[in-house]
């Protein structure tokens, strides 16, 4: 028993020492990463914090991109889309607080705060409605809420495998995985794993291994993840997801605002509840359609961006 107790103490000390070394390693490398991690767009002060937005293109409408939960760098994530969109419309890719090149915030990540921050950012950066909102995954909640609050400014919505608010409202948020990932990053374990063969591909498997992203941006994506992945703002978004979805469900439907629901054919393929909830999303608008993109996972824009661009352009043409 004494030997076992000593072994346990030594093992605990060894773990503490290794975690301490990992933390020092992560902090040292992070300082170097920060020096090379520069905003690609413009920064504006929103609620006494800095918020980032990347804009471009020409046209009468402005396409506003909202990244899915936990997608740390929206500028990189939407790379396959905004170049094509820029040929017929303006575009704006924003970083919520905690994402991309925006600051962290102490404000709760309730949906109204998020939407009001985005709206203020669009005004300060001199974006002009009409807006076509494009939301991926959980961003469907803030996208629909934006349309509820600023209905006259929104002329169309495209959801990229965006979840039905009614579905999110019925699910208890799971923050355990994100909290665990945060510890992997904090103690340098994730950084070490990134240096092992095949790890990056496994992390990005749902994003088509970033095949449509230039090599230099893949490196920035990795840096973004190691600097900001699963941070407190991101975890708080998930923690409040059910409450946020309930608030959206209590609001008005979208009326005649065009709503296009693009569903991934390979994501949760065996989950009939998810597919059924995607069909029911059509009920949110009197002018809606929903279709499935086969051979595409949750990040459809990393597999078949041309399909999404075409749907956005279709809404833009009807606005003229």
UniProtKB/TrEMBL annotation:
<dbReference type="Pfam" id="PF00561">
    <property type="entry name" value="Abhydrolase_1"/>
</dbReference>
<dbReference type="GO" id="GO:0016787">
    <property type="term" value="F:hydrolase activity"/>
</dbReference>
<protein>
    <submittedName>
        <fullName>Alpha/beta hydrolase family protein</fullName>
    </submittedName>
</protein>
<dbReference type="InterPro" id="IPR050266">
    <property type="entry name" value="AB_hydrolase_sf"/>
</dbReference>
<keyword id="KW-0378">Hydrolase</keyword>
<dbReference type="GO" id="GO:0016020">
    <property type="term" value="C:membrane"/>
</dbReference>
<dbReference type="InterPro" id="IPR000073">
    <property type="entry name" value="AB_hydrolase_1"/>
</dbReference>
<feature type="domain" description="AB hydrolase-1">
    <location>
        <begin position="78"/>
        <end position="165"/>
    </location>
</feature>
<dbReference type="InterPro" id="IPR029058">
    <property type="entry name" value="AB_hydrolase_fold"/>
</dbReference>
């Amino acid at each position: 028993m004494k030997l076992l107790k000593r072994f346990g103490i030594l093992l605990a000390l060894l773990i503490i020492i290794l975690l301490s070394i990992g933390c020092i390693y992560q902090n040292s490398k992070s300082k170097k990463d920060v020096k090379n991690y520069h905003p690609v767009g413009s920064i504006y002060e929103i609620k006494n914090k800095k918020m980032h937005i990347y804009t471009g293109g020409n046209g009468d409408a402005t396409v506003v991109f909202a990244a899915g939960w936990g997608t740390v760098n929206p500028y990189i994530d939407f790379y396959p889309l905004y170049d094509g969109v820029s040929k017929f419309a303006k575009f704006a890719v924003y970083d919520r607080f905690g994402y991309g090149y925006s600051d962290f915030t102490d404000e709760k990540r309730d949906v109204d705060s998020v939407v009001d921050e985005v709206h203020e950012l669009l005004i300060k950066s001199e974006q002009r409605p009409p807006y076509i909102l494009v939301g991926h995954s959980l961003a469907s909640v803030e996208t629909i809420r934006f349309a509820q609050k600023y209905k006259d400014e929104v002329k169309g919505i495209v959801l990229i495998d965006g979840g039905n608010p009614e579905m999110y409202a019925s699910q208890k948020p799971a923050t355990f995985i994100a909290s665990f990932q945060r510890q992997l990053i904090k103690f340098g374990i994730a950084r070490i794993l990134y240096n092992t063969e095949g790890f990056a591909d496994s992390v990005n498997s749902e994003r088509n291994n970033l095949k449509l992203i230039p090599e230099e941006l893949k490196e920035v994506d990795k840096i973004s993840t190691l600097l900001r992945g699963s941070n407190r703002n991101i975890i708080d978004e998930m923690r409040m997801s059910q409450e946020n979805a309930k608030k959206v469900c209590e609001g008005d439907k979208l009326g005649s605002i065009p709503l296009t629901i693009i569903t991934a054919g390979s994501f949760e393929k065996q989950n009939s509840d998810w597919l059924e909830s995607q069909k029911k999303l059509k009920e949110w608008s009197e002018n809606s359609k929903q279709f499935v993109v086969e051979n595409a996972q949750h990040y459809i824009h990393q597999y078949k961006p041309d399909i999404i661009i075409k749907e956005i352009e279709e809404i833009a043409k009807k606005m003229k």
